[in-house]
Amino acid sequence: MNDYNFEKKLKSLKFNSPYDKILSEYKKTPSLFLGDPCGYCLGLNN
User: How many domains is the chain partitioned into structurally?
Assistant: First the structure.
């Protein structure tokens, strides 16, 4: 599922991945989010 969210470019999101769309919305209006979306990503240190 993570591969789909990070790599699949969707036509309805103007060819952005869902993760890219979330980050762009966070940069526009950070008050909509409780925290930085990057902190919720799974990575090597999680």
Answer: 1
